[in-house]
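Slide 14.
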Amino acid sequence: MDWEGVFAGQRERLFGLAYRMLGSVAEAQDVLQNAWLRVHSQQGVDNPAGYLTTVVTRLCLDVLGSARVRREHHVGPWLPEPLWMDPAPTPEQHAQHAQTITMAFLQVLETLSPLERAAFILREVLGEDVAVVAAALGREEPAVRQLVHRAREHIQGGRTRYHAPLAQAQEVAAAFLGAVAGGDVTALLAVLAPDVLVMTDSGGKVRAARRVVQGALDVARLMVGVTRKHTPPGAQAEFAVFNGEPGVLLRDGGVVVMVLVLETDGTHVRAVRMVLNPDKLRHLHGAPPQ
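Slide 15: predicted structure.
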């Protein structure tokens, strides 16, 4: 059995499964490493890809058991770890990731039970057969269909309503970030949706707003104030794509101290998601993790 070749061919799909399940780059990478240790010496496996799917899914479910305890005590809004992506993906790559890798989508997945989340991701996002999903979850096929149905109903109510092509979203992001850098509240108001919101995940480890801020004027004042007060002298801002959406990374002396991700409708910024929690930025220090 050429497990090395099989694993290499499945790695991107398996990482996508683990990251969507866990909302953590570091934990997803750990799951893949543990999966490799479990399978690389196995023999006589009829469906290696399906077997890998089962192993990764069950490892993710184990991780979620302890993660739920941590998240119940999370201070302030919870956001997933930012996933640094190719800034110039092919249209096919962007279409594949666009609506199922965004921070908003991952936040909705976070509200599902672990089994509902796994069933939905495997069936609806990755397109696995019901039989494969049933094997991965250790459930009968009718039970899997019920899990997917419940998850689909919940997600339809919380799915992001806005999605713009990446190039168009980047133009909006550039106008937003230019206005923020210049401290221009008037220019910011022109690019913000009236009901725009800001969510900040600091995990209580750095000073930050612990509630969602909503409304164009409040968001504009907050963004200008944050930039003036909390940008370290000499910090470097880098444009990037995170979770299929435009954003910026702020690096201070080689250490990433903030990631800002923008959700746009192609004309206005609808949501700003800022990750300040140092634990969720550690994987971004140095070169992009690709």
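Speaker note: The chain is about 50% helix and 15% strand.
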